[in-house]
Design brief:
Shape of chain B: globular
CATH architecture of the largest domain in chain A: 3-Layer(aba) Sandwich
CATH topology of the largest domain in chain A: Rossmann fold
Shape of chain A: globular
Number of domains of chain B: 1
Oligomer: heterodimer
Strand content of chain A: 15-25%
CATH class of the largest domain in chain A: Alpha Beta
CATH architecture of chain B: Beta Barrel
CATH topology of chain B: Lipocalin
Largest sheet of chain B: 8 strands, antiparallel, barrel
Radius of gyration of chain B: 22 Å
Largest interface: A-B, 26 and 34 residues
Helix content of chain A: 10-25%
Number of strands of chain A: 30
Number of helices of chain B: 2
Number of helices of chain A: 15
Structural class of chain B: alpha+beta
Distance between the termini of chain A: 68 Å
Amino acid sequence: MLMLAAALLLPASCVENLDPNGPAVPTPSTQVLTKVANQSLDSDSGTLLLRLSQAPDAGLMDLLRAKGAVSVERLFTSTPGKEELEQRFGLDQWYLVAFPDALDKEQMAASFAELDAVRTVEYNSFFHKTSDCITYPYTGPVTPATKADAIFNDPMLRDQWQYANHGNTSIATTAYAGGDINVEPVWQTLTTGDNAIIVAVIDEAVQATHPDLAANMWFNEKERNGKPGVDDDGNGYIDDINGFNFVDMTAEYDLFSIGNSGHGTHCAGSIAAVNNNGQGVSGVAGGSGKGDGVRIMSCQIFTGNQDEQHPGSRGATVSNTAKAIKYAADNGASLISCSYGYSAGAFKSDNAYMKQGGAEADAIHYFEACKNNDVLDGNVAIFSSGNDGKNFAGYPGALQDIISVSAFGPDYLPTYYTNYGPGCNITAPGGEAYLAPWTSYAALILSTLPPELNDGKAYGYMQGTSMACPHVTGVAALGLAYARKLGKHFTVQEFKNLLVTSARDFDTRLNGTKTYAVSSRKQLNLYEYRKQMGSGAIDAWLLCMQIEGIPCLTAKVGENQWLDISPYFGTASINLTYLGRTEGEGNNTKYYIEVSDEVKNALGLAEEPYVQYGRLWVHPTKIGAAKITVKAVGGGTEVGGGDKIGGMAIHHDISIIARNLKSSNGGWL
Amino acid sequence: MKRFHAIAAILLLALPFLSANCHHEPEEDPLVIDGQWQISHFSTKSVSIGGQTVDIYIDFQTGGNFEMYQMLGTGRYRKFTGTWKLTDKMLTGSYTGGQAWASSYEVIMDDSRTQLTLTSTTTPQEISTYRKQTIPQDVINNAL
């Protein structure tokens, strides 16, 4: 990092005249205060992020020094060939300013904001992992599976209910058969992964030597085969073989210092633990044991949650997180799995977040604009929605255009901790510790852990939307692998549409109450979660079917009739809010679909098509075919963005063939 | 009048001989549609509707069962099964589960026995033509 081209280290003399009480700071004006983007609470002492209107010249450096800065360096390493993209997202404008810890950061922020060249001052806030980071060692049998019908021979696969939930009541008395990600048929018939797809885990370090992860780790070959201590690939990072430690800015990962829990290793195992290797667990996109799993890049931003409950922990600041995301973008990752965020309620709208959380938001959008695979025209970021039990998601995942994941348990119901509501786009298994019969930890999520942090066991249980997030990331990785196998191409938005609409109905189970027990019996009012758990439960098979292509729906000429759009929007189609002119209220609402004259003519539509009860109603009067674009909200009842927090805008082009004949089962005859 | 009766009598006597002569004319072969077919035309058009590709394979199995592999537009073939019956050039059938086809069909087979035309009896403008074609194994294997 010393090689940062734009880093501007100030001479030691710049701190000579520092007043131990800090420089004199006048009362900040309103104009100055509006430049200060966020709150100082829960942020790093001694650093601030500045968005500058110009690269700092000698004059500006003098001014910054005079105000107490001891170093000013460009936040993001510039990557040759990507300068234009960096500028488009404003990455070239962000600088990290360091000053002595003794100085009051609020006064420093106000002081820097007085400078004309400073457009924004951002406190270097801390993110928090979306898990309680409590691990429970696995104590079950570890002999390889020998059952004839086992898909993989990984012995613990049978204990990973998230892949195939058989309603085993020893896991939870309320366990629900089918409450899983429906990945087994994908493994059996379609794909198990692709080693050309790289997934960056932005988290604690991933234990790259873990026996169930090592074969699926990403390797930076130039560094692996290069000289120690040399930036062999010229990417600005020395010896970054599996990724980088952005907490300490070194290639050496910190797996075991205070605060580490194995959170990153656990998430990585859910995505791509090596399958069919006769040991441990299976990962969603971990391959078939033939070197064909997706690859894990480890970008360490945490040791622990840096707060009063975790003294001594380090990271994750906005600055190291934003750097990690850009690193993933510049070094080949197609997906980032981000099981962290701000607490729900820290920001109440996209605008508030974008104004206050500028640097990492810019990095996320830069990541999604970079193209690192031959399926998409960019990349996809996936976040956890948070564990506050609040009825809205935490940012950054709550951003309208970013996928945010809520959590369900083996009972196929919302977990007691999950955030829900606006900003939550889809739900996935996150595990739940407090379900009866309380005889084991089997209701949580089983994955890989560093034995050093887990009573010597290489596998264990955790819970949280942190665990739900990598399941959606893993499914997305499988989808990319399958699309690559088929030679299919999508835009990022198209792929997000496919992912968010690859959802099974979740809402019809949301009646009455759910009982769980922490210190005493508690209940969730399930009705509060209706239409609030995103578009439904992620379904790996459905995603792959959508990637293959969806057959046309058949309509009969001369009748107003409903068509089943679940192949396009999942069985959760009945729960979605659709966009368009509405008529009626509640469950009876008709959402009218805007169609062009071309479509009207092609089908001779006798009336405006509409969606009601999750079905598309059309009335063609002649034989023909057309595509009707149906728009919906991916999570919640309102699209987010601007002054709102809300769901993702999703749409599908639904192909319809109108014939004189129609069987109700869709058969041609 | 007498002459008329005489002619009639001659014709009556000749009938057995005439009918005996008919035995020497070729009998019309029974209509046999057993086997595998692929749609080649829909109505008068090629195998598309409004630009959407239509691909149908049907296996009319001896014994009255059928398997149909259908793809409309894109995606994977869908498999349908059921039973069929051909009576006096009239094809009827139902899907597994008991649901009748949307129509019965009048069947015409060309002389080469390689082309089959099914015309809906309820909406005669719906005409599908099929050609004799073995169903590819990958269609069978990958159908939903």
